[in-house]
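Input for the complex:
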Amino acid sequence: MGALSDLRTLALFAYWDLLRMRRRTMFVAMRVVWFALQVTLFALALSAMVRFRGYVSQGLDYYHFYLLGVYASILFSISTSNAYEVAEEFEEGIIEYHLSLPVKRRILTLGRAIGGGLAGFIFTLPMFGIVLALIGGATPWAVAASLAAALAFSIGVVGLVLSIVLSVKSGDATDVLFGVLDAMIVRLSTIFYPAVVLSKVAPYYYAAVSNPVSHFVDLLRTFFFFEEYRVLAVSDPAIMASYLLGFVAGLVSAAVYVVERKLEGGGWR
Amino acid sequence: MLAVSAAVKIVDFVKKFGDTVAVDGLNLEIYEGEIFGLLGPNGSGKSTTLLTIATVYKPTSGDIYVFGRSVTREGDEVRKYVGIAFQEPKAMWVDTLYELLLWHARVVGYSSAEAKSAVRDAMERLNLWEHRGKQFYQLSGGTRKKLEIAKVLIQRPRLAIFDEPTAQVDVITKHALWDVIRELRQEGSTVIVATNDMFEAERICERLAIMYRGRLGALGTVRELKDRIPGGDVVEIGYEGSREEVERAVSRLPSVGRYVLEDNRLIAYLNRGEEKAAEIVSLLTSAGVKVKRIMVQEPTLDDVFFYFTGARLREENQDVALNRGATPWAR
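Predicted:
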């Protein structure tokens, strides 16, 4: 198993997740409806109520801030929904099948993380396109950088999903855990509120600034509106990018550890 | 590295799931190039053993060596040699047969073009080609089972494992699957077949292990296991002559453990009946008894199975009664 062979196998495991995207079309359709409502009704209504007095120089309003927040939120949500797919795969014995294949466990895990991340990323591409259209005038550099960040973020979230689902090995626990995680992580972040606003409630603020979702969404904002949103972001762009990379590397490594050291077939509850 | 003749060497293997002991100190050696049968009642630890050989489970203690590689320390290397057809077919409802097998072929090392050809060959061989576009949920139980066999047929691993391969399949398919198993062996694979079907074990396996409650109950060739049943063969001789002369002749044969005389028939229970029958006939003839017909019946593998597992049931649990009469091997 040389490096080239490993790379080929990794691509095949990523392809496994892409092949099964059609399983999730209903779920994604529901999220698209939610997204449409958010960027039309709610985004417009909220931006009519919220003003960034004293923070932003000119020409920007809460609407643009909110648009990228909604996109980050939906990417997180669709990436975490991979948990239910992995749980179902375990129940159907697919994980046992994968464990029996002539493949290094590390490659298997990396492939599944990348495949799951890619699937989430592709699902949200149309919504990203809508956000771009609504923002207007984005530079190619901003588009390319934000797409790369979105893909990395999605892979990191799937790494988290694999680590947790394959550790708890329970369909019920997966439902509860990811229902709570989805709700808590999005709310304890800067997806809908800037860090400077959250600073009035210390626990909320510290939760948000340590939340990788905050770093991801604020990084997206600085890609598109560097000068305007720099003062609202949780941190410096370089730090946010490093934080995002650390998040991805850490969680994918955790998934590799779980699969290589802990995981075996059977025992699913 | 172990001797090359050992395809699989199981050493003090223990597997626990919580408080449940699935396999309890199993020691076993499977030779390279043989078709090895693993028999045992449900819950005897067959599947657990096979899944541990395939590195899907990890041993609680002990180890298993596949072509000299340890499943606990060299799992990546072990998996290069092993292909397994699971007892329960593994696929998601949305998968189509062709898509799934094509992916499998690529993962086990075929190039894109080779994979298409190998998948088509395997599917045609197992009469799956007409189902290639169907999704998994649309398939019958037997067709789903063939999917698992097709995976191994495509992979052609050095160690092929079949966990109850012919459960739920019709007679024609069963024979086709046996041909596949024999073909793999002829091509150089070592094959392990877990089964509850005694006829299947007898038809295709060269050596057998009978597992019971996670332990090894018996091990040997089919012939050896049959011979191990005391008085397992039945020799029936129809005669004309004095009953006393027959009794006298038979009593001179210590190898005849138990016999019955009824309706001018001698029914003797002994081992190696095919060899002893001639000796009995010779004694009867010299005693002036006219022999009219001879029938030798050896124990079936069912008898072997009941003897090694049923006898233990009686030893360990007096409440469990066998449905085989006074002796488990009597017919």
